[in-house]
Amino acid sequence: MPMLELDADGLLRRVAERIPAELRPNIVVIGSIATAWAFRDVAHTAMVATKDIDLLLRPSVSAVTTAEALGKQLLAEGWQPRFPDGMAPGTPSTPTDDLPALRVAPPGGEGGWFVELLCEPSQDQIARKQWHRFTTPQGDFGLPSFRYMPVAIHAAPESPQGLRIALPANMALAHLLEHAEPDRTPIASLPGNPPRFVKDVGRAVALWWLAGQQSPMASRDWSAQWNDALQALFPRAVAQQKAQARAGLSALTGYLREAHAIAVNSVLAPHGTTLQAFERAHRSLMALADAS
To answer: CA triplet 42, 50, 122: central angle to 5 degrees?
Structure first.
């Protein structure tokens, strides 16, 4: 599915309006829309090349309840499920791992974008990805959880739209930790079918490049935010987690051209970032990981 040029500010306001006030504290915006909002002053626009708005539901113990309440409301208002590869809502007999994620487009398919629901993992999740069943009037769906999402949403500030939006530094750190052991699953939807870690770790480098364009204090700020997240979430393993982040970056070294090609067609699309600049960002982020 091709990327779209979307206005992050307008979309965040539109989505926030549809989320009941009592559910908003349980939702954090992550991904490309969060990135566009955070770096809107760099490109002098909040436009972003994407097609989905990722909403992470928290805490994990109530994520299914939140998903059912939010899904029920959106579907009742005419939002339409989007299914890849001919999938359909599950039934009670559908294995949880075979359920589709809930992706819903606004009534009338406005703009071609959709909202996708994810959830915070439980503290004992070991697998990279785990599915959680929830039920809607249209059938059963799955909520995916990724093991390092608590890092991505740590200390997410509330935005003027009324939703919490993840910090770029922490989204980047989550990607690096996730791929200390690189996920080499091919991404069938991208040219050349690159391994999953190339896209995700490349996203971390792209966020770092944007941070450097935004502020000369990026190194200080990211180091502080990384340390805060790791101290809060892994108080007995901070040094180990820093080494894991460094390993994730190291894995990308031989794939920088591929990672750059993906990034300039997504989060870096408005910026014209060269491969050489991307390579410098990779090296300087490695240095930051060593120094933090």
So the answer is: 100
- What is the Cα gyration radius of the chain? 18
CB of 40 within 8 A of CB of 81? no
Domain range 4-150, its CATH number among 3.30.70, 3.40.50, 3.30.460, 1.20.58: 3.30.460
pTM strictly above 0.85: yes
Q: Distance between CA 53 and CA 27 in Å, rounded? A: 12
Confidence of residue 40 (pLDDT cuts 50, 70, 90): confident
Indicate the range of 107-121, 133-147, 218-232 predicted with least confidence: 107-121
| Other beta carbons less than 10 A from residue 192's beta carbon | 10
Confidence of residue 1 (pLDDT cuts 50, 70, 90): very low
Evaluate whether 157 touches 127 at the Cβ level (below 8 Å): no
Torsion angle defined by CA atoms of residues 172, 154, 134 and 189, in that order, rounded to the nearest 10 degrees: -10
Amino acid sitting at position 14: R
Domain extents for the chain? 4-150, 167-291
Residue 69: closest CA among 111, 31, 102, 112: 102
Structure token pair of residue 91: 């039934």
Q: What is the dihedral of CA 241, 175, 202, 156, to 10 degrees?
A: -110
* Single-letter amino acid code for the residue at 264: V
Maximum alpha-carbon separation in the chain = 55
Q: Are strands 164-165 and 27-30 parallel, antiparallel or unpaired?
A: parallel
How far is residue 256's CA from residue 237's CA, in Å, rounded to a whole number?
Answer: 29
Which tens digit of pLDDT belongs to each residue from 81-135? 988 777 899 999 999 999 999 999 988 766 678 899 999 999 999 999 999 999 9
